[in-house]
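Reviewer 2 asked us to include a model.

Predict the structure of this chain.
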Amino acid sequence: MSDRDTIEVGRRVLTAASQALATQAAELAGGFARAVELLAAAKGRIVCTGMGKSGHVARKIAATFASTGAPALFVHPAEASHGDLGMIGQDDVILALSKSGEATELADVLAYAGRFKIPLIAVTAQPESALGRAANVVLPLTDAPEATAEVSAPTTSTTLQIALGDALAVALLERRGFKAGDFHVFHPGGKLGAMLRTVADLMHGPAELPLVAAEAPMRQALLVMSEKRWGIVGVTDPAGRLSGVISDGDLRRHIDGLLDHTAGQVMTPGPKKTVPPDMMASEALALMSDPPPAVTVLFVVEGDRPVGILHVHDLLRAGVM
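Predicted model (structure tokens):
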């Protein structure tokens, strides 16, 4: 088999999957909305189950639900018959996957769901199967051949299952108003976790703030700038609000007779680049980079009062890019 033939096989498989996904999207109907309603109404967890390749997909879907704020777990249908049915509660909702809908290992799960009136959502290519008949809602897989038609190994069908699981998870999180900050709670590590951290997670607190009053002599302001080592000093009004900042540029502009001035006379009033504690760290980095001018330090303010300070190095060390 030549390289060209091999590449052609890959293209054929990907094309088959993309065409099946397009058809699946076009055929999506009211059952999808009802499934999301059931998932949203669940007081307990989303129990995902399936056998074989469908089981692997169900495990992935459970992980996606859990990572987007919907408590979920995977229950192996064969193990369910040997005690794991006890993991499924009456406040839960079951999402069962089976292309044929006739996987014998699912029988006890279906009976258990019926006995305790646990809502059941079926993802199957055969709505009239045992799984389809037992379900409250059926999400039918589109009629599309597997990429390996001769041996019918699960390929296109599992792609459709994964995509439907993703569609359910996204529809559910948008319905629940799940935000990036919520997502960070479940993804504290790695690059994604860094991008989802807030300014409050990375800022230096009040004890490290370089602040002087507007009437303070410049000699005092220079001492604070030197001691705190931020290269900047914040100037506050009598109410403690940040009214201006003094940077290296301000010092150069007032170099003649600098020590004869007060901080309020030298400062640049009304700093345009400040951030709230709940801003995403990635947004703060973008603000620092946006001219004019690009800055390396930001005051963190809450109600116009400085509560922290953030340096670009804090963001880079945390992996925010």
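The longest helix spans residues 3-27. The two ends are 44 Å apart (CA to CA). We have added this to the supplementary material.
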